[in-house]
Amino acid sequence: MVHPVYANLPTTIFEAMSGLARETGAINLGQGFPDEPGPEAVRRKAAEETVHGYNQYPPMRGLPGLRQAVAAHYARFQGLDLDWETEVTVTSGATEALAAAFLSLISPGDEVVLFQPLYDAYTPMVRRAGGVPRLARLEPPHWRITREMLEAAFTPNTRMVVLNNPVNPAAVIFPDEDLALLAAFCVAHDVLAVCDEVWEQIAFDGRVFKPLMAFPGMRERTVKIGSAGKMFALTGWKVGFLCAAPALTRGLAGAHQFLTFTTPPNLQAAVAWGLENCPDWFAAMPGELQRSRDRLAAGLAREGFKVLPAAGTYFLNVDLAASGVSEADRDFCLRAVREHGVAAIPVSAFYEQDAPTHIIRLCFAKRDETLDAGIERLAAARAAVIGA
Ligand code: PMP
Ligand code: GLN
Questions:
Q1: If you measure from the C-alpha of residue 388 to the centroid of ligand 1, how many angstroms do you get, rounded to a whole number?
Q2: Domain at 263, CATH number
Q3: DSSP notation for 231-251
Q4: Distance, CA 138 to ligand 2 centroid (Å)?
């Protein structure tokens, strides 16, 4: 029989909405992936490696060249001092990295603090690993971490906190003050932090992303997770990174070796090459996405939508209620994709308890014409229910 965690688990909202978009031919502003195919030089490198490179099992912890490039990348962008040999493991996407972290660091009955809204993969994986989720809740529009919420969530049984920063779907980047507060709680309660920082390279309006690992007392108790898919706008590539102190890395690698064991070496080699040779990509990407964010935000505002701020990620949220739409987020999204040819994600899918039902998430990593058509179709979906 199926394990209870999976027995009634619905298909993830991203696949469900993309499936409907494929079926109906709708514009897909739901699942987070770019219209553009990703940097050509990196894709050419992958092609060359596929044809002329080594395509048998690479080393279990990843190609040394990629692990060195990851350590160098995080030294350059985030001031971290990772030792590539003992502290960096390559995984098949951040998703596998999360699974390896939960399986290797959670024992049955351990409490795990998570923040709603949360990425939908977290709680099923935490529960399957034997963990007991303790949910704190971030509130719009600022989505701040507060002392009161941490005091309520942490107990003597807390083993781990899971932090996603920048946050999908809230599109917020936590201020230093909140990270310092969380770090102080982790240290005081002797708790590990699993940091899903896959959106780290996408920060707007001059913001500088800071990893939780860099805060006092966190270097030895943090597992930092990154994703080449997000760094290079190649979301299908599934190359992730686990960065942690040697004692944690031994456990993480132990889990990784029996989850996927390795990750395709052609893709690893291309990612290593990209990290070393594409400084222009990292310099230009946030600005281009910021321009797309602004185009989508301005277009939606013109059509009467109330748009929430987006400090990073590919995502912008719309407050339906404040836009004059009283329909629940899921109903609006189903109607929008079926009747108006545009897919979005209901933000209630990122909650386990007391979900708000008036916010939808849109992906703006798209060409101008896709955004413009999406705006028009969303406006039609709104007009149909407010009678405008
Ligand atoms: N965590 C978050 C917060 C994400 O948004 C995503 C994917 N968009 C992932 C993890 C998964 O990353 P990957 O595709 O590298 O597995
Ligand atoms: N993380 C992507 C998003 O938020 C989706 C990834 C997936 O489909 N699992 O849209």
A1: 38
A2: 3.40.640.10
A3: HTT-TTS--EEEE--HHHHHH
A4: 20
Note whether 197 and 234 are same-domain residues. Answer: yes
Q: Which of 277, 302, 334 is the C-terminal boundary of a domain?
A: 277
Q: Of 277, 301, 335, which residue is a domain's last?
A: 277
Please give the number of the atom of ligand 2 that sits closest to the Cα of 198: 1
Ligand 1, residues at Cβ distance < 6 Å:
32, 93-95, 119, 164, 168, 196, 198, 227, 229, 235, 238, 240
What pTM did the predictor assign? 0.97
The secondary structure element, H or E, covering residue 362 is strand 359-363
Same structural domain for residues 12 and 45? Answer: no
Q: What is the largest CA-CA distance in the chain?
A: 62
**Structural domain containing residue 210:** 40-277
First to last CA, the chain: 51
Write out pLDDT tens, residues 329-373: 999 999 999 999 999 999 999 999 999 999 999 999 999 999 999
Q: State pLDDT tens for residues 41-52.
A: 999 999 999 999
Structural domains counted in the chain = 2
Return the bridge partners of 362, or none.
Answer: 316
Closest CA to ligand 2's atom 1: 32
For residue 64, report the distance from its CA to the centre of ligand 2, in Å: 28
Q: Are residues 217 and 156 in the same domain?
A: yes
